[in-house]
Amino acid sequence: MAQPNAAAQSSIGSPSKISVELIINGVETKLDVAPWTTLLDALREHLDLTGTKKGCDHGQCGACTVLVDGRRINSCLTLAVMKDGARVTMIEGLATDGVLHPMQQAFIDHDAFQCGYCTPGQICSAVGLIAEGKAKTAEEIREMMSGNICRCAAYPNIVSAIQQVMGAS
Amino acid sequence: MINFEYARANDVADAVRQIAADPTSKFIAGGTNLLDLMKEDVERPARLIDITRLPLSDVEETPDGGVRIGALVPNSDLAWHPLIAQRYPMLASAILAGASAQLRNMASTGGNLMQRTRCFYFYDTVTPCNKRQPGSGCSAIAGINRINAILGTSDTCIATHPSDMCVALAVLEAKVHVAGPGGERVIPFADFHRLPGDAPQRDTNLDANELITAVELPADGFAKNYTYLKIRDRLSYAFALVSVAVGLEMDGNTIRRARFALGGVAHKPWRDEAAEAGLNGKVANPEIFERAAGLVLRDAKGFEHNAFKIELARRTIVRALIQAAHGTPQSQNNKKIA
Amino acid sequence: MPRDRSTPSHRGDISRRTVLQGAVAVGVLTHGQAVSSATVAAEQGEASKPMAPYIGSATSRVDGRDKVTGGAKYAGEFNAPGLVHASVIGSAIAKGRIARIDVSEAISVGGVVAVLTHENRPPMADDDKAYKDAVAPDQGSPFRPLYDDRIRFSGQPIALVLAENSETARFAASLVHVEYEPEKHVTDLYSKLNDVVSLKAPAKPRGDTASALASSPVRHHGEYYVPIEHHNPMEPYASTVIWEGGGKITIYDKTQGVQNVHGYVCNVFNLKPEDVRVMSPFVGGAFGSGLRPQYQVVLAVLAARALERSVRVVLTRQQMYSLGYRPAMIQRIDLGAETDGTLNAISHDATTVTSQYENFHRNETTWSGLLYKSANAKYAHNLVRLDLSTSCDMRAPSATTGVYALEAAMDELAVALKLDPLEFRLKCYSERDQSSGLPFSSKNLRECYRQGAEAFGWDKRSPEPRAMRDGRELVGWGMATGIWEALQVPIAVRIALTANGHAEVSCATSDIGTGTYTIMAQVAADMLGLPLDGVDIRLGDSTLPQSPVEGGSWIAASVSNGIVTTSRAVLKELLRLAKEMPNSPLATAAPEEVVLSGGMIVSRRDAARAVSIADAMQHDGVDRIVREETTRFARDSSHAHNTHSAIFAEVKVDEQLNVVRVTRVVSAVAAGRILNAKTAHSQVMGSVVWGIGMALHEETLIDHAFGRIMNANIAEYHVPVNADVQDIKVIFVDEKDEIVNPLGVKGLGEIGIVGVAAAIANAIYHATGKRVRALPITLDKLY
């Protein structure tokens, strides 16, 4: 990464941009971003990858959940410049060659969404949950999926979808 | 969010040098609280110093049998770390009671200590708040104060510290290792956070130019008789109304040594050594737990909406002590209170 | 405009595709081979009703793939070259005027394009009529964003910063300096109870309620409070205006009614209807908050017109609290009964909140008079006008709140009568709408009670409070009734059928998560005899055939019957073509004698008499049949039309700590024909969770000194999370309704929430012996 411009600048001026490289859904992607650009905004507004959702922008809803180096995080509370070199996987990167990820298919099968707005975050969170390997029972899944709010309240179906994938793996 | 500069620190000395060179700068690690507050214009650093690449991510045993936790260890890694899960299960439990899995994956150990209050008025820049803008007044005292403090408040601030992890660290009597321009020093956990007094803008005794490098746990983790019991408005992903961490050293049914701390009720994790001492040497029973709770809360003061916290805290202390004494700690997954 | 920005259309569920390959093939088989398929159709379809595999089945959402891959695009996600980003500035005070706005510092920020205020905005209409959208309250002056210097509520938009990117806009917004001239505001409902607007009695009273109450041996009086609640759909309010050039704009808006927004925007900006197109292919939840056009759409259009550029305005979660809300309310209920449980009298008063500038209200009280047998009933409704934005519809408006109060009161009276709450309700069971005296088109509430109670195990309930426990937890069982209207509205549907066996079905309705895409595809597939993936659905586009807003649970019934109507027109045309074929086996068939099945036009009487759709069209050289029909539902003034439910809830309450867990809920619903067993289940399950939130969590907190909402976020405005939801069982009881509409569909979006909060509140009483009459029942209220 290029070191940020050290020259002092007025808070009124436009921020200087910093080059970062992210591996987005397996593809190396170079990006010039200002320090104040969150990973979420970098994806949605700079790269036009809108699959990842902004529900609150404050880490309170989980709609922005993505996998960074395999771990689920809230991309709204992360600066893109801080993730230089990281592997970022979002909803657009889960299917391979048009075949849905088992979690995506399970969400369809169990009707684990209604409006669909929290869904990319729920699915990324669920994929992260399984990778963590800490949740086994329904109550553990419920607790560890509580960082993803679904206002349509598909929660029991989300738990069923995750259990389906857990059972298969 | 204001326009800010971004820089990376190469090592601890560099981090301290950078922050000393620019008093308007702040360290950033997990960012979960700082970026939240920057988006609200509550925090307005002109420069962020990214410390995430510093070598502070180890959890290692210390020669005296304790554990040293690097300041950058993510909360989730810490909770699941075998050393912590086995020897300091109260700490693991407290961490897992807080925030969400995603936030715990991001939030750092040091950053957890630096969390700022959730007081509504601190967050809303339209309203007066002494913590955000010293001298502007406290809107919470006569405002909506259901989530505010009942212990250690002052005329200038009734905010609470929102951390769960810190409540357990208070019980464990952790030590906070910090590095500053003048070198390193160690702050006992009880001295790390402050009461609001007449300077509520200061949450901690960390100097502006200091960096937390590690949190050290003493050897005694109370792994047999402990609990972390958190009471909140929904069953997960909510800040504590009241929480209680307990560590007991038991000899049969007799308490040899007791420690407990409260979260959600004060500007810092709240311990009362007199109340703890009253339990030492006693046979565990609800009466002495009630007495201990009464002692802790003897000076508690409620406001319009949060007076219930006094009774809630009393009952939560008693239950938490029962859980710890019986060796039936609260599960953070099973929402039935043990 | 480019193709990739047009409304996505939705094909049938891929998981069913394989299964139905055979059915597709039928369309090109010889007549002889088609017999089996037609026979199947004849067996399934008795008389006039189509009964094919899709309607009623548990079909997965046809838009599911888009939603699980991130392909579904919502209003704030459309892009255009040179798109300008915006940041809204909200008022810091609740009432007064803007004395001065200084935008000079903001405008000097690099990348800022403009700052719009009431002082420099482009022209907009200056009469109330232009701002009255299709669902605006009758009385009042709708809010006009950026219109003048008046401040009507805290958070009111007063300036819009426009910049090349969103971060710059947000930063510059912090540099706009505003001086206010504040005036004294009032935001506390309780402080204005002596200054109310009395509404005309919402329904005709009956009997002499006062005397009947006075002479009743068993009485109950209760006052129930519901706080302000916010919808909090997951998708923030957003509008992207694409500047198409030539004075044309396309607006991607978060709305429940593209044509409502279209009409509103045309009126407010004096635009020609053909110059404005409003689209909402996907809506990330709305729950009533998207019925009326919201202020971000006005701001986005203002900005696009000012700059002649494409503009996107996305509200923050905080700013969404300055939109509408479920009004706070105080309800007083008086019930009087004989000692045997015969209900003598019901009196229901409601005092609900609105703004200073519009009188929004629904009829909380009328449900009480309708539901239970009682010779005497009276109602009163007062409005309190506060310095807040106008309240609005939120999931089952008026029933969620009114039935909560009624059903909590009924529980209290049952206790006073020493009657089982279910038995008491059965005692008051009414086969007629008690207000109008009309019989119901269908009412299978009795079966809801029976099946719900059985699934729940209600007969094992100990009547006394605090009598059931599980270790340290007190166990409580409560129940309640739910009721909603079965509404339907005029709607137009267009079907374009092509000779290759593909249909495009379009209507300007929306799918806000309700499953509209899916049920439309199911009904069309059945009516046209096509496989699900032979049907494309287009909706959420103001240029499509007319639809009202999606609300009140009326779209499922309206659009599904609308598809039936248009399908019949298509069928008629197909039959005409088939008759023109030489030696047509359908030469003498009348339209009502044939159905479309398996790609064939088939005689109902004799399945061997069939013509393939493809053959009929090809013979006449027709490759496409397009029909658009408007369906109007005959006014049936001889019946009441309602959906019903029975809810049974179990709570466990820690005896010392008062932590409440809702461990089980059974919701048994009678709502006519269920179009999709899977999505219907989700609708009701989600509604039950809304009821849990209403009972235990949700409350918008206003600091009345500032007149400002303090928990305007989704961390401290608590909605249920996954851990709050345990075992929810949804039962759809059989309810054939041959009166309400041809398909017998009654709608499901609202009924699932009605009564749930009462069932939980009643269960908490049963567990603890403590009656909390102010929602939400947070644990402090149980001390």
Summary tags:
heterotrimer; A: 169 residues; alpha+beta; Ubiquitin-like (UB roll); DNA polymerase, domain 1; five-stranded mixed β-sheet; 5 helices; 5 strands; B: 338 residues; Uridine Diphospho-n-acetylenolpyruvylglucosamine Reductase, domain 2; Enolase-like, domain 1; four-stranded antiparallel β-sheet; 12 strands; 20% strand; globular; Aldehyde_Oxdr_Iron-Sulfur (chain A); (2Fe-2S)-binding protein (chain A); 2 iron, 2 sulfur cluster binding (chain A); Beta-grasp_dom_sf (chain A); oxidoreductase (chain A)
Give a short overview.
The complex is a heterotrimer of chains A (169), B (338) and C (783). Chain B is an alpha+beta fold and 338 residues long.
Describe this structure in words.
The complex is a heterotrimer of chains A (169), B (338) and C (783). With 169 residues, chain A is of the alpha+beta class. Chain A has two domains: 18-93, Roll (Ubiquitin-like (UB roll)), CATH 3.10.20.30; 102-168, [2Fe-2S]-binding domain (DNA polymerase, domain 1, Orthogonal Bundle), CATH 1.10.150. Chain A has helices at 39-46, 102-109, 119-132, 138-144, 155-168; strands at residues 18-24, 27-33, 65-68, 71-74, 87-89. A five-stranded mixed β-sheet of chain A has the order 2-1-5-3-4, sandwiched between helices. In chain A, a hairpin with a 2-residue loop joins strand 1 and strand 2. In chain A, helix 2 crosses helix 5 (155-168). The longest helix of chain A has 14 residues, at 119-132. Mean pLDDT of chain A is 93; it is low at 1-10. Helix content of chain B is 29%, strand content 20%. In chain B, a hairpin with a 2-residue loop joins strand 10 and strand 11. In chain B, helix 5 packs antiparallel against helix 9 and helix 12 (286-296) crosses helix 13 (308-326). In chain C, strand 16 and strand 17 (473-485) form a beta hairpin. Chains in contact: A-B, A-C, B-C. The interface between A and C is large, with 64 and 70 residues.
Structural class of chain C: alpha+beta
Uncertain parts of chain A: 1-10
CATH class of the largest domain in chain C reads: Alpha Beta
Mean pLDDT of chain C: 93
Content of β-strand of chain C: 15-25%
CATH architecture of the largest domain in chain A: Roll
Distance between the termini of chain A: 38 Å
The helix tally of chain C amounts to: 18
Strand tally of chain C: 29
Which geometry of chain A do the CA atoms define? Answer: globular
The CATH superfamily of the largest domain in chain A appears as: Beta-grasp domain
Helix content of chain A: 25-40%
- The dominant shape of chain C is globular
Largest sheet of chain C: 7 strands, mixed
Protein name (chain B): Xanthine dehydrogenase family protein subunit M
GO molecular function (chain B): FAD binding; oxidoreductase activity
Keywords (chain B): FAD, Flavoprotein
Domain FAD-binding PCMH-type (chain B): 1-222
